[in-house]
Description:
Blueprint: E1 2-9, E2 15-21, E3 24-29, E4 35-38, E5 43-46, E6 48-53, H1 66-75, E7 78-83, H2 94-107, E8 111-114, H3 130-135, E9 142-143, H4 153-164, E10 169-172, E11 185-186, H5 189-194, E12 198-199, H6 201-218, E13 221-224, H7 230-241, E14 246-250, H8 252-256, H9 278-289, E15 295-296, H10 325-334, H11 341-356, E16 373-383, E17 402-412, E18 415-419, E19 422-423
Parallel strand pairs: 1-4, 6-7, 7-8, 9-10, 10-13, 11-12, 13-14, 14-15
Antiparallel strand pairs: 1-2, 2-3, 5-16, 16-17, 17-18, 18-19
Amino acid sequence: MKYTLKNVSLPNGDRTNVVVSGELISAIGQSTEGEVIDCTNLMVLPGLVDLHTHLREPGKEDSETVLSGSQSAVMGGFTAVSAMANTSPVADTAGVVEQVFRLGKEAGLCAVYPVGAVTVGLAGERLAELGAMADSAAQVRVFSDDGKCVSDPLVMRRALEYVKSFNGVIAQHAQDPRLTEHAQMNEGEVSSRLGLSGWPAVAEEAIIARDILLADHVKSRLHICHLTTKGGVELVRWAKSQGINVTAEVTPHHLLLTDDLVESYDPVYKVNPPLRTSQDVMALRAGLADGTIDIVATDHAPHPAEEKECEWSAASFGMLGLETALSVVAKTMVSEGLMSWEDVVRVMSTNPARIGGYARQGQQILVGSPANLTVINPTESWSVDKEKLLSKSRNTPFHGHVLPVKVVHTIFEGVIVVKDGKLTGKKHE
């Protein structure tokens, strides 16, 4: 397989031809080889990498499967996703993570890296088979009880100590369970007016502060999932100033949406952690722009209709994110002049690949690099239609929004899996 992306722009603005042969980039310059794909007015990025995806399989296939999630991912320009552990059964053994890894290989559309649970059954009491998952065919390096916080400080300390031996990382869902009992949304002016139980910022910040100190104490790697508060940004900024090995992520929806949307009582806006205030949103954008926040991660959380199209208190937490993530980042960061396209590559490809240890992902566009690429039209807008998304679920908060930037082609290990905005039916064997 050989083809040329002709007259395509690189993230730095330079225009060139990119030749792909097999699984690698074989030439960059003026030459053309094989099929010529006209990319005038288009830009090529390293394939996007999501460190936080819920694919639901095994056990919750009515929401999503590894295949449908992979289809959604490549439509959004992702060539690698990290499948969170809160499946049924929980991905807390080598057997389950190897099953997810195998399903990703069979789908063949993008790399699927299983995230292992930190504790058995996500119960927060006993460490899961961390070493066995690390030594498995899936070679797990990221561990998280996401959906639940590892709230016991001793368990968290032991987890950080354990993964240090193989350069693993604990990705913490920072939510003090006692401070968020029965919480339905952000605690503040809007929750008081609506009479909904509030979710205070301190519930997130207290766990972040504790875990930063634990990570420093044991000299291990800590990753903060879905950061949402101004105070949390300041804590991570302080930790980095002290040389503590902590990284953090922000979701696209927390860069754009605010808690006043809950006044509609539409459960599509119910998410964990909750939408915060405009002040928090601005702090998150600033933190992403200045490097305090390392990556954007989707927290793609599909749910069947009956779990979202119901009264607010009964609805599940979570939003879709894979197919809209790049566009929301472009809207909130690039269009606002806060980030360049090179910065987008850093937070949506290079850094997440580095944190996850995904060697073939997040590489610069150079001769000899793996051909994991995303080709976009940076000037084309599109209207989000939940019925046209490839996820099995429909719970996107962006239905009806007109967003910038269209994914045109997605290339995984040299195979064009999305061409002209449509799945090709081809996969990497």
